[in-house]
Amino acid sequence: MSESFTLTIDGVEVTAQPGQSILQAADAAGVYIPRLCAHPELEAFGACRVCTVKVNGRPQAACTTPATKGMIVENDTPELNEHRRSLIEMLFVEGNHFCMFCERSGNCELQALAYRLGIDAPRHDYQYPARTLDGSHPEVFIDRNRCILCGRCVRASRDVDGKHVFDFVGRGKGKRIWIDAESRLADTPLEGEDKAVEVCPVGAILRKGAAYAAPIGRRLYDHDPIGADIEAKRVGAPAAKGGKS
Amino acid sequence: MSKPRVATASLAGCFGCHMSILDIDDRILQLIELVEFDKSPIDDYKGFTQRCAIGLIEGGCCNAENVHVLQDFRKNCDILIALGECAICGGIPAMRNTIPLRECLAEAYLDGPTVHNPSRRIPDDPEIPRLLNRVYPCHEVVKMDYYLQGCPPPADAIWAALTALLTNRPIQLPYELLKYD
Ligand code: SF4
Ligand code: FES
């Protein structure tokens, strides 16, 4: 096994193993770097750029950049958090995110990041795009109004489930998550227990019959901000709190 | 010194946000020590009697009357607060924003499975405010000063925001009070 090494994140020395990305090294050390498309069980993808940090002064995606010895990483700075806020705000206005009736509300990573970053309202105009919903499958539905194109379902279906049920079609504003069938989700080999269903960070791919299982007050991000679990691993860390920084 | 005045309005909303104002419970007694209500469904004043310090707006704009009321509030209030999801992003009424207005009206008055409308007429009495092509969040119609998220915003968030504004402090909500649902 090769030697571990150190880098610094926000002035704190962090130990990393060869092969780790900056994000993985930070997670292991109990330093939370905000992220959306990255998932611990999936290959890094670099789609959302929410994890952007500065490495020796240059912006880099923490999930796709390998940690190297002596790197100076900036993460929790007003400038970077402002960029993250902008990205999250754009995701909110580009889709139709009606949190008030979304089953994922309270457990949604997009919403939780907005809470953590203290977004009280997006500064851009809402676009209200016309998107489609597919409820044909007996166990799962997909509501493209809420899709943020993170590609987690694409990677999970291809690499973990070995099925390749999901992929992207179109480009730019017209880009959509699509399925491996002529028309209906029911015609794909997708099953309710697939990893692809579990990993969606928002309410775009959801298992049927599981809605609103936890009441308000007992959902994932009701009391503790997203990332608090990672920060709790940091030795001697004070309890994390959300809000503007 | 006279008390600062607060006005409220429900535009394209469900009155849930107003319920949440009432949900401050017995703090409403403290509130009426601090402020005087002006135009509002709470006291049923139909028009402004004086200039107001704060206007609370529930709901976005779905028709011409909503726009008129909102502009009237902007003219008569120093600070306007978008109260709740519908005021901020259009909310449930804005679900129609992806469907052309003509199709919405046809479904509601002509083609819907439970519609009985022998005259085949879509209501067009001049007394009825004209629907806008889509539902507009308040900040797309006039300048809004603050946003209180939630469907409805928690009573504690409304209380925290009002008392902060009335005592010249910045509005700072704790993590648990910033919620989009
Ligand atoms: S459906 Fe969910 S997992 Fe798939 S790309 Fe969209 S947001 Fe990501
Ligand atoms: S988490 Fe790194 S780009 Fe999305």
Structural summary, described in words:
Chain A has 245 residues and is of the alpha+beta class. Chain A is built from six helices and ten strands, in the order E-E-H-E-E-E-H-H-E-E-H-E-E-H-E-H. The model of chain A has no long low-confidence stretch (mean pLDDT 94). Chain B is α/β, with parallel strands linked by helices. Helices cover 31% and strands 19% of the residues of chain B. Chain B is built from six helices and seven strands. The mean pLDDT of chain B is 96. The interface between A and B is medium-sized, with 28 and 29 residues. The structure holds iron/sulfur cluster and FE2/S2 (inorganic) cluster (FES). Iron/sulfur cluster (SF4) binds at residues 147-153, 166, 177, 199-202, 204-205 of chain A. FE2/S2 (inorganic) cluster binds at residues 35-38, 46-51, 61, 63 of chain A.
Topology:
The complex is a heterodimer of chains A (245) and B (181).
Chain A: E1 5-9, E2 12-16, H1 22-29, E3 52-55, E4 58-61, E5 72-74, H2 78-94, H3 109-116, E6 133-134, E7 140-143, H4 152-160, E8 166-169, E9 176-179, H5 195-198, E10 205-207, H6 228-231
Parallel strand pairs in A: 1-5
Antiparallel strand pairs in A: 1-2, 3-4, 3-5, 6-7, 7-10, 8-9
Chain B: E1 5-10, H1 16-22, H2 27-34, E2 36-37, E3 52-58, E4 61-63, H3 64-76, E5 77-83, H4 85-89, H5 101-111, E6 131-136, E7 146-148, H6 155-166
Bound molecules: iron/sulfur cluster and FE2/S2 (inorganic) cluster (FES).
The site of FE2/S2 (inorganic) cluster has 12 residues of chain A, from loops.
Shape of chain A: globular
Give the CATH superfamily of chain B: NADH:ubiquinone oxidoreductase-like, 20kDa subunit
The top level CATH class name of chain B: Alpha Beta
How many DSSP H or I helices of chain A?
6
Across the major sheet of chain B, the strand order is: 2-1-3-5-7
Strand content of chain A: 15-25%
Note the main sheet of chain A.
5 strands, mixed
Mean pLDDT across residues of chain B:
96
Low-confidence stretches of chain B: none
Distance between the termini of chain A: 39 Å
Strand content of chain B: 15-25%
What does the oligomeric state look like here? heterodimer
Q: What integer is the average pLDDT of chain A?
A: 94
The radius of gyration over CA of chain B amounts to: 18 Å
Tell me which CATH architecture of the largest domain in chain A applies here: 2-Layer Sandwich
Number of helices in the DSSP assignment of chain B: 6
Radius of gyration of chain A: 19 Å
Give the largest interface pair and sizes. Answer: A-B, 28 and 29 residues
Which structural class do the helices and strands of chain A define? alpha+beta
